[in-house]
Amino acid sequence: MTRLFGFWSSHRAELFALLAQHITLVAASTLAAVVIGIPLGIFAARRPRLSAPIVGLANVVQTIPSLAMFGFLLPVPLVGGIGARAAIVVLILYGLLPIVRTTITGITGIDASIREAGVAMGMTPRELLRLVELPLALPSIASGVRVAAVVGVGSATIAAAIGAGGLGEYIYRGLSMVDSTVILAGAVPAAVLALAVDAGLLWVERQLSARRRTASRRAAVAVATMAVLMFPLAAAAGRSGGAIVVGSKNFTEQVVLGELLAQSIERETGLAVQRRLNLGGTLICDRALLTGDVDVYVEYTGTALTAVFHQPVKTNGRAVFEDVRDRYSRSGRTVLPPLGFDNTFAILVRGGDARRLGLKTIGDAVPEARKWRAGFGYEFLERPDGYPGLAAAYGLSFAAPPRVMDLALSYRALATGQVDLIAGDATAGLIRALDLVQLEDDRHYFPPYDAVPVARASTLLKYPQVRGALERLAGRVTAADMRALNYAADVEHRDVPQIVREFLKSK
Amino acid sequence: MPSIEFRDVSFTRAGGRHVLERFDLSVEGGEVFALVGRSGAGKTTLLKLVNRLLVPDAGTVVVEGRDTREWEPIRLRRRVGYVLQDVGLFPHMTVADNIGLVPRLEGWAPDRTASRVGELLDLIGLDRQAFCARWPDELSGGQRQRIVVARALAVDPPILLMDEPFGALDPITRTELHSEFRRIQDRLRKTVLIVTHDMREAWALADRIGVLDSGRLIACDSPAALGRSADPRVRELLAGAALAGAAPS
C-alpha cells in the first residue's frame, strides 16, 4: 500500500499524462461510437429484417478479444498500425454494440399508438423521429452510451499494447516486471475512472428520463462542460514528443533496452525522443517499424530470421547476422552492430530439481520430462525455432501438453511448482532471484539471438547523428550487464530510466 | 358539397377479412356524424381512410372534393384533426407543447403558437396559467381528453375525426364533456366524424347516426328518426343503450 502511494507520488506527472491519454481514448472513441451507432440503430429499427444481422455482427465483433482485434487491424491502411488512432478504431468497434442495441430497443419499444398519433397529426418521418421517437428513446440510448463508455475504460487498458498509452501502460509494465505495485498503479485508477464514468453518466441518464425540461437542460450543460474540460486534457495527451520514436516489446529486457537507446540518442544528439515501449510483441514492433510509427527498436537476430522473415532455423551466428542484415536492408531498414549479448532461449528448471537429479543439459532432462508439466509463452509455442523443433531435436515430451502462459509469469509459475520446466530468456534477472537453473543446449538447437538495434534507413539518413549514437553502443552490453540490469528492474523493482542512467554513466 | 364522402369503398385487411364492402357515406360540412358499430366492425379503419393512413382497395374516399389519393398526405392530415381515446398525448411534452405541436410543424412563430395555446385552453375550460407547464401524467383522464381535443383543433382544421373520444372516462366526466363538446361545436361548426360502439355517446353528440354492420351501413338517420326504426338490429342496439323510443336530448 505504501509502495503504491510512493510509486504514484514519484510518478505524478506520468500518471496524470497516462490518465489524460486514457480519458482521451475513451472520450474520443465513445463520441465516435455515438455518432456512428445512433444513426445505425435508427436505420436498423426501421428495417426489422436488417436489425438482427446488424446486432449479430456487432455481437460477433464484441466477442473478438481486443488484442486479436489489434492484430487484425495492424496491416490495414489508414485505421490500422499502432498508436492512438488504431486503438480508438478498436474501441469504437467495441462501443458500437451497446449503443446500436439500446437505440433499437428504445425506438421499437415506443407504443405504436403514440407513433400513429404523430403520423395522424401530419408529421413527416423526419419530424416524427426528431420530436417523438428520439426524445422517447433517449433514456434507453443514454444507458447504452454509459455501458459503452464504461466498457471502453476497461478495453482502453489493452491499448497500451499498441503504444497508445493510457493506464494500461502501467499494467503492462507491471506484468513484464512481475511487480504487482506497478500493475495496481494502473489498475486502481482505471477502476476508479470506470466507476466515476458510470456514476456520472448514470446521473445524466436520470436527468434525461425525468422528462423535465430544466433538468435535461442541466444535463446538456453538464455534458457540454465535460466535453470542454476534455479538450485541454486531450490536447495535453495529443502532444507527441520528439523527432525520434524508440519502440520496444513488452518484457523487462526490451523496456530496458528501449530506454537505453532513447537515453543514448538524447545524450549524444540532443534530439527529442518519444518512447513507445511495451508494444505487444515482435509482429507489432516490426509492423510499426515498417510503417514509420517507430524509428528504432532492439531485435534479436534469431527472432528476426524466423519470426520476421519466416526462414528456417540456422545456428551459425555470423551467417544469421549477415542474412538478417541483408533482408532488413531490402525493406528499407538498417541493422546496427550487435549490442554485445546473446539472449537465447533458456530452458529452465528449479534449482532444487537440477541438484537432486543432477541435471546439466536438456538431454539430461528428457527422461524426467515425461513426468513433468511444462509452461511456455505463446510465442515460444508457435515459433519455428520454439517448442515444436525443440521437441523433435531432443525427443522431448511431457505428461500433458504444455500450458500457455505469459512469459513474465512463467518464471514464478516454475518457482512455485505449478509447472516443472519453462523456456525463459537467458538474460532474465529472475533466474538468479528465484534460484532457477538453465539447462545447456547440448545439441545446439537454438539459433543465436544477438541483440541488434534495427532502425528505419530513412531516419538514419535524415539524422546521421542517430546512427553515430547507436553505433557507439556496439559491444557495450554484455550478458552479465544485461542480467544485472534485468535483476535491478525485475527483482529490486527499481525505476528503469534511473537504472539505465547509472549504467550509461558507469561505462 | 359533402365534406367527406365514401363512394363504393371496399377495404380488405391483411388477413383477407373484408372490413368495408361497397360502402357509401356522405358527411355534410358542419355536421356531426356518428358511426356506431360493434368493436372490430372496422370503425377505426374507416377513420384512417379519411386522413389517408390507409387507402381503399376499391372505390374512392373524397375529402373536401378531392380523392384522398390525390391529396399530399401531410397536407391532408394537418387539415384533419384526429382525436383518439386517451392515447396520443406525447408523454415527453408539456400540455402547451402538446397543443402547440401542429402549429410548430406548420412553422408558426412561437408567440403566435403561445397565444393560440392560451385561446384553446380557454375554449376547453382549463386555466392557462395552471396547465401550460403541466405534464400529461399529472392530469386526470377528463383533462387529458380535453387537451387531446384542443390539440386536434390547434390549427383550426375544418374536419375533426374522433375515435371513441370519451369512452375511457367515468360516466359523470363523460356527460360533462359531451355537453362541453356540443357547446364548442355550436361555436366552431366543424365537420365531425365520430366512431363509437356506444349508442348513448352517438345519441348525445351527433346530428346524424349511421349504424355499421358487417361492412355495410344498415341505417343512417337523425337520432329521432333512428329511435323510430323498425330494423331489429337497430332496435337491439337502442335497447342495449336503454334508448328505445327515447327522444334526442
Q: Sheet with the most strands of chain B?
A: 6 strands, mixed
Q: Provide the low-confidence segments of chain B as ranges.
A: none
Compute the number of helices of chain A. Answer: 24
**CATH topology category name of the largest domain in chain A:** MetI-like fold
Structural class, from secondary structure content of chain A?
Answer: alpha/beta
Q: Please work out how many helical segments of chain B DSSP would assign.
A: 11
Our Rg estimate of chain B from Cα atoms comes to 18 Å
Strand order of the largest sheet of chain A: 7-6-8-5-9
Q: From the helix content, strand content and strand pairing of chain B, which structural class follows?
A: alpha/beta
In helices, the fraction of residues of chain B equals 25-40%
The largest inter-chain interface, given as chain pair and residues per side, is:
A-B, 19 and 22 residues
Overall pLDDT metric of chain A: 87
Helix content of chain A: 55-70%
Report the principal-axis shape of chain A: elongated
Spell out the blueprint of helices and strands.
The complex is a heterodimer of chains A (507) and B (249).
Chain A: H1 2-10, H2 12-46, H3 48-63, H4 66-73, H5 84-108, H6 112-120, H7 125-155, H8 168-177, H9 180-209, H10 213-238, E1 244-249, H11 252-269, E2 273-279, H12 282-291, E3 296-300, H13 301-308, H14 317-330, E4 333-335, E5 345-350, H15 351-357, H16 362-369, E6 374-376, H17 378-382, H18 387-394, E7 403-404, H19 407-415, E8 421-425, H20 430-433, E9 436-439, E10 451-456, H21 457-462, H22 464-471, H23 479-490, H24 496-506
Parallel strand pairs in A: 1-2, 6-7, 6-8
Antiparallel strand pairs in A: 3-10, 4-10, 5-8, 5-9
Chain B: E1 4-12, E2 18-27, E3 32-36, H1 43-50, E4 58-63, E5 66-67, H2 73-78, E6 80-83, H3 95-99, H4 101-105, H5 110-123, H6 128-131, H7 141-152, E7 159-163, H8 171-188, E8 191-196, H9 199-205, E9 208-213, E10 216-221, H10 223-227, H11 232-240
Parallel strand pairs in B: 3-8, 3-9, 6-7, 7-8
Antiparallel strand pairs in B: 1-2, 1-4, 4-5, 9-10
